[in-house]
Specification:
- This protein has one domain.
- Helices cover 66% and strands 0% of the residues.
Amino acid sequence: MSPGIKNQRLINRSYGRTHRSLPVSQSSATLPLVSTAVSEGLIWDRVIRAEEGLVPPDVARFLLELDFPEDDLNRLEDLNTRANEGLLTASEREELEHYIHVGDVLSLLHSKARRSLARRG
């Protein structure tokens, strides 16, 4: 398994992709994070159009190499732990949302790149 897939699974497992809120252990006073993944995903779908095979193979392979650096993965793990303990500050919650957003876009780019390579054979 490539590091990118493993790291994206860490993000997905840690924060969930459907409900887009902080972990359940947060108090009920915590407001859910705004979900933009669906509309942004549809926009990226139209922009990239990988199923049409428009992503050149070298670009697709480059996209598959994009990943979070180790320092960011360590920070993400720290934020996840603090979120599960209900200890995130407002700035940490915002930082976590940024990681989630980047992870969502990275996941979409990886998916598009894989589909484009598959279509080209």
